[in-house]
Write a structure and sequence with these properties.
Blueprint lengths: L3 E7 L3 H12 L4 E5 L12 H6 L1 H19 L15 H25 L2 E11 L3 E6 L5 E10 L3 E3 L12 E2 L1 H4 L8 E5 L3 H12 L3 E6 L10 H13 L3 E4 L2 E7 L4 E7 L2 E7 L1 E4 L3 E3 L32 E3 L10 H15 L13 E3 L5 E3 L4 H7 L3 E7 L4 H6 L5 E7 L12 H5 L10 H10 L10
Parallel strand pairs: 1-2, 1-5, 2-3, 5-16, 7-14, 8-9, 8-14, 9-10
Antiparallel strand pairs: 3-4, 4-5, 6-15, 11-12, 12-13, 17-18, 19-20
Helix pairs in contact: 1-8, 3-4, 3-6
Length: 455
């Protein structure tokens, strides 16, 4: 006799496990299927984010930043450290420990919320049935009243630079490097490439970043991108724009990367090459041909604004559907899907999803960029406040960058975000704090900044 559940979730990353827990909180019977296996051969919930993305990368970013500050900033605070050395093995042990704690925590959350975590492969069949192939045991067909597909994404592999796990590596292998490479190449100056490049540059590697686009951080506001580029250059990242990679040839000790830019054909030799040109939706063997699921031209599962597929009772959330591939976006979609299944009113505002680079300094934005607002023809006004003028930032030795706010001239709306600038202007911000820069930027929109000259 086959088992049945009110909701079966395929995928236990941030979108899937959150959907499962939320559905269980509504009193439904829930199973969550996942087959993630780490490099050590152990299965773990949490998907890319917890195992090979968001969490381990932030652990390495924190360790490498502390090392960099000890070398270059502590003296300004009067802290005498002598010779500073980084033990890479200890750093990596800490990263792995954090990952184990958090992935194990998901299993605990499943137990607390009465979600049945199933380890193995899940595949949607026609009629809202799910084929479950456990890592050990017999294949089982599960009946589900509702199904949530949350299969995530995987790194894009370039045919001209196939991954070998040693010299040409993806973002996961880049987190597990055991010794600082003398030279490191990174293809792609997006979030992943810049974060990973920053880690190993701080630890002493000579890092060259090759970006095919002519504009740095093309998705961010131009003022923010310009300030960020200057900081990365100060930190030693060699960022080459308009660099279109044509091939990568391995030798015994190096990878020769050929590319073309405005100066013509070029090449560099690096010890290791990280390819970070984006991710693709992971839908391999996720559903049968007669399940009714449709993919778009880019391989994403087709859903409406509520993450419903064309099959009644089947939802898809996270990286396998349209929109930014961000953990917090997937989690909120998971909540929305579970709430809708429970019969509640739920929706998402995709215009206000924040994007963040956890580099040094951190870079974040939400809503529309100034270029997007200008192109729309809507009258707008801009306010900005540099951290150089922030007392808290000076005390922290963290004065790079700014806060920039773009608002409508017509109704004062902060474009892409719900409140208006007057809301922020009248909000009391703690002093001294970095949040004061947001307050001052909101004041600067109306040329009322108090701690920096109004433009």
């Amino acid at each position: 006799m086959s088992r049945s559940f009110d909701v079966v979730v395929i995928g236990a990353g941030p979108a899937g496990y959150i959907a499962a827990i939320r559905a269980a909180q509504h009193g439904m019977t829930v199973a969550c299927i996942d087959e993630w296996k780490n490099r050590d051969g152990k299965y773990a919930f949490g998907g890319t984010c917890l195992n090979a993305g968001c969490i381990p990368s932030k652990a390495l970013l924190e360790s490498s930043e502390l090392y960099h500050r000890a070398q270059h900033e502590f003296k300004k605070h009067g802290i005498q450290t002598g010779d500073v050395a980084m033990d890479i093995a200890t750093m990596q042990k800490r990263r792995a420990s954090i990952v184990r704690q958090l992935t194990g925590g998901i299993a605990g959350l499943f137990k607390a919320n009465k979600v049945e975590g199933l380890v193995g492969h899940g595949k949607l069949l026609a009629g809202r049935k799910v084929e479950f192939t456990p890592v050990s045991g017999d294949v089982e067909t599960i009946d589900a009243k509702h199904v949530v597909l949350a299969s995530g994404s995987s790194p894009i592999e370039l045919p001209i630079a196939p991954f070998d796990g040693v010299q040409i590596i993806d973002s996961w292998d880049a987190l597990e490097i055991e010794a600082v490479p003398e030279t490191l190449g990174v293809v792609g100056a997006g979030v992943i490439g810049l974060e990973l490049g920053s880690v190993w540059a701080r630890l002493g590697s000579k890092v060259t970043v090759l970006e095919a686009m002519d504009d740095f951080l093309f998705m961010a506001d131009r003022d923010v991108a310009k300030a960020a580029a200057q900081e990365f250059q100060k930190q030693g990242l060699d960022i080459r724009l308009g660099a279109k990679v044509s091939k990568a040839v391995k030798s015994k000790n190096n990878v020769t990367v050929s590319y073309a830019d405005s100066s013509g054909e070029q090449s560099i030799d690096v010890e290791k090459l990280i390819v970070a040109v984006g991710r693709r939706p992971h839908t391999d063997d996720l559903f049968s041909d007669d399940a009714g699921i449709q993919l778009d031209e880019r391989g994403f599962i087709v859903v409406n604004e509520s993450c419903r597929t064309r099959v009644k009772g089947v939802y898809a959330v996270g990286d396998c559907v349209r929109g930014p591939m961000l953990a917090h976006k997937g989690s909120e979609e998971g909540v929305m899907a579970a709430d809708l299944i429970a019969g509640e009113v739920a929706e998402m505002n995709y215009d206000v999803i924040p994007s963040v680079l956890y580099t040094h300094p951190e870079i974040a934005w939400t809503g529309k960029t100034e270029a997007e607002v200008k192109a729309s023809g809507r009258p707008y006004k801009v306010g900005s406040f540099p951290f150089m003028a922030s007392g808290r930032a000076k005390a922290m030795e963290q004065t790079a960058g700014m806060v920039k706010i773009i608002a409508s001239k017509e109704d004062d709306e902060i474009l892409g975000i719900d409140p208006d600038t007057e809301d922020l202007q009248r909000t009391i911000h703690a002093h001294p704090s970095l949040a004061e820069a947001v307050h001052e930027a909101a004041l600067a929109v109306d040329k009322k900044a108090l701690n920096f000259p109004n433009k």
